[in-house]
TrEMBL record:
Biased composition regions of type Basic and acidic residues, renumbered to the chain: 180-202
Name of the protein: Gluconate 2-dehydrogenase subunit 3 family protein
Cross-referenced InterPro entries: Gluconate_2DH_su3
Pfam families (alphabetical): Gluconate_2-dh3
Species the sequence originates in: Antrihabitans cavernicola
Phylogenetic classification of the source organism: Bacteria, Bacillati, Actinomycetota, Actinomycetes, Mycobacteriales
Region spans: Disordered: 179-202
Length: 202
């Protein structure tokens, strides 16, 4: 059940400035061509980030292509952990290591594993915390994956609709200020007490 029924952030696109509209609308266009990942890496990355974000049904936000575009254009966060190389190489290495773990445990590449097996493999990395995983802190690999995945996911208009985010306010601005105040195009959350992490409430 939608938390914000009828809400469509793109209904406000005509009120955005041209540059902002161009950036946001490009995110719902055809996914960009893969330029950084190899075909094998793209398959692993897609399975990983879609699993991390729980993307099981349409509309599927194309996360891996957005990550690929950032890496191809060196649009990183401007820093990296001491025990890891620059983000581009860290993505290559961690995807390869995740695939190695999958083949060792289940006899198949990560992308070919069942959802339950993928969960086990991903959870094993998270459970290590700051302990070593293939020569690096597991927490640092986890941070790399989730930072890139979440940045791409929550920049997409489909997700804005899901969380009730009204998108850019420039140059329109806000008229109704204050706690629990909404603009005319915003929609009240139908399930404000629901925890999205609890499967029984989805």
């Amino acid at each position: 059940m939608d938390r914000f029924p009828g809400f469509d952030v793109l209904s406000q696109s005509g009120r955005w400035d041209p540059v902002t509209a161009g950036v946001v609308l490009a995110r719902i266009a055809m996914a960009p061509e893969i330029r950084f990942f190899t075909p094998a890496e793209e398959t692993i990355a897609t399975a990983l980030v879609d699993h991390l974000l729980g993307q099981k049904a349409e509309p599927i936000v194309p996360i891996a292509p957005q990550i690929d575009a950032r890496l191809a254009e060196t649009q990183t966060d401007g820093w990296h952990y001491d025990d890891m190389p620059a983000d581009a190489q860290s993505w290559r290495h961690t995807l390869a290591d995740l695939d190695t773990d999958a083949r060792a445990r289940f006899g198949a590449g990560f992308a070919s594993c069942s959802p339950t097996q993928q969960t086990d493999l991903i959870q094993a990395v998270q459970d290590l915390g700051s302990d070593d995983w293939h020569g690096r802190s597991a927490a640092h690999a986890w941070s790399l994956w989730t930072r890139y995945a979440c940045t791409a996911f929550y920049s997409h208009p489909h997700v804005w609709n899901e969380i009730g985010f009204a998108g850019p306010a420039y140059p329109r601005g806000y008229k109704n200020l204050g706690v629990d105040s909404r603009e005319g195009h915003e929609v009240r959350d139908r399930r404000p007490a629901a925890d999205p992490l609890r499967r029984s409430q989805r």
